[in-house]
Structure formats: structure tokens, C-alpha cells
Amino acid sequence: MFKWLFKRKNYPDSYKTYLAGFKKDEKKLLSETRFVVFDTETTGFDKIEDRILSIGAISVLNNTINVSDSFEIYLKQDVFKSESVKIHGILKGGNLEKVSEKEAIEKFLDYIKNDVLVGHHVGFDMAMVDRMMRRNNLGKLKNLCLDTGVLFKMSKHLVYQENLKNYSLDDLCEELKIEKVDRHTATGDALITAIAFQKILARLNKNKNLKLKDLL
User: Fold this and answer.
1) Cα 194 from chain centre
2) Do residues 151 and 116 make contact, with C-beta atoms less than 8 angstroms apart?
3) Which region is the signal sequence (predicted)?
């Protein structure tokens, strides 16, 4: 599997190891699936011009948030926008240890492996990570992903409909009674999203027979 990718481009060993770990199995029970809930803080919302400042993630397995299995990393700021600091609070200098994009993506891929990614309005975060990977001569993320915004609509309205309201993470906190701790930090938002994910799954899995494929 993925041998054609290796022939097409001489990817680094770290990315080859990441690709080699994939074996699709959408029949898994939710209790057997490791979910990686993640969030990014960025310099802005332009998927081409802006950059990731930090990535935060935490795993969920068997309906348990595993705080000991978490991920947090800060990136060196090749692009700096002072106006965004008031949102995320990440300075260009400061005391935070920062790494290069290359090191950040290698560590992130090693952490997520072939597991299912979860995020709120996750398409943006996935796109930002993909752009970072492209800048470092890698392919795209191959993980299955779930959007808590979409799942919440499913749980609230029983079926997903395109014309329904788009719920922000703050909306989910209000509706699901989640305390907004460390809001607008990657790690804090990842934890909030993980709690929301658990609550949404509880709504969707009332019959206790929900499988991963039902969420995709």
C-alpha cells in the first residue's frame, strides 16, 4: 500500500513511516478507535499566506479523554501578525520553546499515526496542516477526520442538513454546558472540543451499537 507514492516522490523516512501505518477499518467499534482531537492557532485565516503558530491535541479512547496522551507544540514564526496576538497571545519572541515547521510536522505525524482526527470546523485546520506539509515536500494528511460541528448538527437534528446553522465552539460550550477553560489556545480548544465530542457521541450512541462508519 502507498508504494506508488514512494516511487512518485522521494519522501523522507518519517513520512513513509506515517503512510505505512494505514490500514482502513471503518467497521471498528467506537470503543476500539483512538480519536485525536486537535486544534491549531494561526496568524490568520488565509490558508496560503498565513501560518500555524501552535498545535494542541489530546486523545480519546473508549470514551475516555486521556490527558496523559496529549500533544502541544509551538512553531517559529516566519510570518508574524501583531493584530492576531490579542486572540491567541503567542508572541514572536517570549519564553515559549518553538521549533521549525519541519520538526513540528514530524512530531505531529508521529503522534497522530493512522488514527481518526477530530476538530471543530476541522476543514480549516486540516488545510493549514496540509499547506505546512506541502511547504516541507510532504504529501497530505491521510487520516479520516470528523467535524464536531457536523456531528453536533446530527445529534441535534437527527440528520445532517446543509441549511442548518453553523455552530461555533462557543455555541457548543453553551448548549452542552462546557466550561471555557483556556479558550483560544490550541491545547485549551482541543480539550474543550474533546469534551464536546464525548457529549455528542453520547447523544448519537444511545443504542450502544454505533460504529465509526456511521459517523463518516
Assistant:
1) 10
2) no
3) none
DSSP collapsed to 3 states, the chain: CCHHHHHHCCCCHHHHHHHHCCCCCCCCEHHHCEEEEEEEEECCCCCCCCCEEEEEEEEEECCEEEEEEEEEEEECCCCCCHHHHHHHCCCCCCCCCEECHHHHHHHHHHHHCCCEEEECCHHHHHHHHHHHHHHCCCCCCCCCEEEHHHHHHHHHHCCCCCCCCCCCHHHHHHHHCCCCCCCCCHHHHHHHHHHHHHHHHHHHCCCCCCEHHHHC
Out of 3.90.228.20, 3.30.420.10, 3.40.190.10, 3.30.390.50, the CATH code matching 32-215 is: 3.30.420.10
Q: Output the average pLDDT for the chain.
A: 85
- The predicted pLDDT at position 91 comes to 46
Phi and psi at 104, nearest 5°, equal: -65, -45
Cβ atoms of residues 25 and 115 within 8 Å? no
**Partner residues linked to 56 by β-bridges:** 39, 72
**Residue 35 burial (10 A CB sphere; 0-12, 13-18, 19+):** buried
The residue with greater pLDDT, 39 or 85, is: 39
